[in-house]
Amino acid sequence: MFHHSSKLQYEVRVDTPDPQFAKFLQQAIGGVEGEIRVAMQYFFQAMGARGDAKYRDMLMMTATEELSHIEFLGHAVALNLEGAPVTVQEEAAKDPIVNAIMGGMNPRHILSSGLSAMPVNANGVPFDMSHVYATGNLAADMTANAMAEGSGRVLASRLYNMTDDAGMKDMLSFLIARDTMHQQQWLAVIEELGGMEAMLPIPNSTPEEHEATEHSYYFLNTSLDEPTPEGRWTKGKSLDGKAEFSVVSPPEPLGQKPDLGKARKHSGAQKEQM
Questions:
Q1: 88 pLDDT exceeds 80?
Q2: Do the annotations mark residue 173 as ligand-binding?
Q3: Annotated binding-site residue? 161
Q4: Is 4 labeled as ligand-binding?
Q5: Which residues of the sequence carry a binding annotation for Ca(2+) (predicted)?
Q6: Which class is domain 19-196?
Q7: pLDDT exceeds 90 at position 89
């Protein structure tokens, strides 16, 4: 069950409408870094969360907050579209500012939505849910969520730098702040469960006899002409505390040369392949 307030989560103010910026804001709604993605990701993770019920509750609450972000971003898109040209006559005026706006805005904001937001990215491509990750594994989902919030905060920061509108900067500063919280929220779950050493490798329930552990902890240098890039990943104790990192350079092939044999009759291959 969901509840809804008639008021937005945060104030949205647009001092100078900018239809081109409305197009950019669509990325924060329907882009792979956007709010539809995280709202649906947390929602489906919550529905599949097993174990301590508090994690399901936390996911559902944050999914609901992300719906609120979609709502006020959608309002921001609509406010930025105020004053956008909607007729041929307006375009025909040859006003250089009007022409610049028409050249930069998404025409579907006129043709399809009547000067309002849509569930699409900045290129007008609909969000298709293919970037919603809900594995049923709490550690895998929390790391995916931290990445999602990281890319979302990158996007919000870039949008902040692309506008001079004080109202839009204020709204985006709120989104940046909430992304700060959510990044740390998901990583705090990992810490609460024992930290990365306890969680790795994900899933930590896979029996060790199912893994060829002699291949689990070496970095493979596949370059023909560059030395191994030395770092934390090439030496010292592994993050799960079970082994030492090492380097294999150059790598030796462990498999056979692929040979599929002749093509089958009636498979559509050339005669020479059969």
A1: no
A2: no
A3: no
A4: no
A5: 57, 221, 223
A6: mainly alpha
A7: no
Tell whether 252 is in a known binding site: no
User: Is 266 labelled a binding residue?
Assistant: no
Summarize pLDDT for 14-72 with one digit per residue, the tens: 999 998 899 999 999 999 999 999 999 999 999 999 999 999 999 999 999 999 999 99
- How many residues would you count in the chain? 274
The string of pLDDT tens digits covering residues 236-256 is 999 999 999 999 999 999 999
210 labelled as ligand-binding?
no
Whether residue 223 is annotated as binding a ligand: the answer is: yes
118 pLDDT more than 60 = yes
**Where do the domains of the chain lie?**
19-196, 206-253
